[in-house]
Amino acid sequence: MFILSAFADEISPNPTEQISVLQSCQIGFIELRSVYSTNILSLSGQQLKDLKQLLDKEGIKISAIGSPIGKIRIDEPFAPHLEKFQHAIDVCALFETKNMRIFSYYPPEGFQGDWHPWRNAVLDRMHTKAYFAAKAGIQLFHENEHRIYGDSPERIEDLFANVRYPHFRAAFDAANFVYGGFDPLLGWKASKPYLAHLHFKDWRDGAEHGSLIGDGDGQWPLILKELVEEKYHGFAVLEPHLLGGGPTGGATGPDKFPQAVQAARSLLAKLGAEVQ
Questions:
Q1: What is the pLDDT of residues 24-45, one digit of tens each?
Q2: Separation CA 202–CA 213 (nearest Å)
């Protein structure tokens, strides 16, 4: 069962417009990343409560907190970031989700392509977060974001071979492998044993923005065929980036977002998938 969700901030900064478009697309879940152009972890306590009240009123649930945890340089101080991570756990509790998206750190300034001097620091930080997540009952989904430690198939295998917690799993994004110059099928092979979450985004090599799923180089039809055959059950989160994207998010707009949803539904239906 593929349960559709969305990074609704790609529709609009306004949560009311986000909800309206999602309801028109018959999507009942949001992956919370930002509202009013402000990251979810930077909202005030009252803003968070107001947002929760709005979502409850409209019957919208949360697939995960799309946190920016792990999107700092590996040589930046860890203690303030760990405090932010603890806040993210509290935000999960407020929005009644056990799921949080995270990353595995950018390289230091002047980076020349060799992660070896920083590998142990990455693994130590990921261990620490996985430990606290396990204590809190939070499932961490690591996204293979461009330029972070876990952006390549090889380093994804290294991460999961060494951070062995049942609360630490993979959020697979084929487009990020294409954008980063990696073979998405090798990325899929590395991620699949740890898969717990999907980000529906596609990309053509060298493009400036995303493609409708199945129209890019992400090999989604092959990957989804496998998942349908193996009876995948979990979230598939629309993150189309049809108007572009960057380190803090992406844009698709209220007009194009329904096109992305329809492309996803059509591809899944063609493959015989169950969709919610």
A1: 999 999 999 999 999 999 999 9
A2: 5
Q: CATH number of the domain at 2-108+116-256, please?
A: 3.20.20.150
pLDDT tens string 98-154: 999 999 999 999 898 899 999 999 999 999 999 999 999 999 999 999 999 999 999
Are the C-beta atoms of 121 and 86 separated by less than 8 Å? no
CA proximity to 25, closest of 273, 267, 263 = 263
**DSSP string for residues in 47-102:** HHHHHHHHHHHHT-EEEEE---TT-SBTTS-SHHHHHHHHHHHHHHHHTT--EEEE
The edge-to-edge listing of strands for the beta sheet with 234-238 is 2-6, 234-238, 195-200, 168-172, 139-143, 99-102, 61-65, 29-32
Output the six-digit token pair for 217. 């180089």
Contacts of 69 (CB under 8 A, 6+ apart): 81, 84, 85, 88, 100, 102, 103, 129
Q: From CA 62, how far away is CA 68, in angstroms rounded?
A: 16
Upper half-sphere CA count for residue 238 (Cβ side, 13 Å)? 33
Tell me the chain's radius of gyration from C-alpha atoms: 18
One-letter amino acid for residue 246 of the chain: G
Question: Distance between CA atoms of 118 and 142, rounded to whole angstroms?
Answer: 18
Three-state DSSP string of 18-38? HHHHHHHCCCCEEEECEECCE
Is the distance from CB of 261 to CB of 15 less than 8 angstroms?
Answer: no
pTM: 0.95
Query: Could you tell me the residue ranges of all domains in the chain?
Result: 2-108+116-256
